[in-house]
Amino acid sequence: MLTFPDGIQIGVTGLDEIMAELYTEGRKATDETAREIIKRLEEKNNFIPSSERARREYSYVLLKEYRKYVKDRSGSLSSR
Q1: pTM score
Q2: What is the 3-state secondary structure (H, E, C) of the chain?
Q3: Residue 27 buriedness (CB in 10 A; 0-12 / 13-18 / 19+)
Q4: Which of the two ends of the chain, N or C, has the fewest CB atoms closer than 10 A to its terminal CB?
Q5: Do residues 4 and 30 make contact, with C-beta atoms less than 8 angstroms apart?
Q6: How many CB atoms lie within 10 A of CB 75?
Q7: How many Å from the N-terminal Cα to the C-terminal Cα in the chain?
Q8: Which long-range contacts link 21-25 to residues 24+ away (Cβ below 8 Å)?
């Protein structure tokens, strides 16, 4: 579930799997990674509006989620 700054929540299919793949690939949280997440979400038949504004909003939220994902994984590795 993605939560946008205005409180709207959107369910997406396959996001955890995509983030795991990107993390395994060593991808950093960049604009390019956000575009890749959007591309992979669309490949899994998630609807993402085509407007530039909507894609910027998705990029912002996806990068926030990916940063959290990376931080959570990095933290669990350092606590071993």
Answers
A1: 0.88
A2: CEECCCCCEECCCCHHHHHHHHHHCCCCCCHHHHHHHHHHHHHCCCCCCCCHHHHHHHHHHHHHHHHHHHHHHHHHHHCC
A3: middle
A4: C
A5: no
A6: 9
A7: 29
A8: 22/66, 23/69, 23/70, 23/73
Encoded tokens for 70:
């990376």
Give pLDDT tens digits for 3-35.
Answer: 999 999 999 999 999 999 999 999 999 999 999
User: How many residues does this entry show for the chain?
Assistant: 80
Alpha-carbon distance of 59 to 38, in angstroms, equals 8
Span 47-54, average pLDDT:
95
In the block, tokens 């989620």 appear at: 65
Residues linked to residue 9 through DSSP beta bridges, in sequence order: 3
Rounded distance between C-alpha atoms, residue 22 and residue 67, angstroms: 11
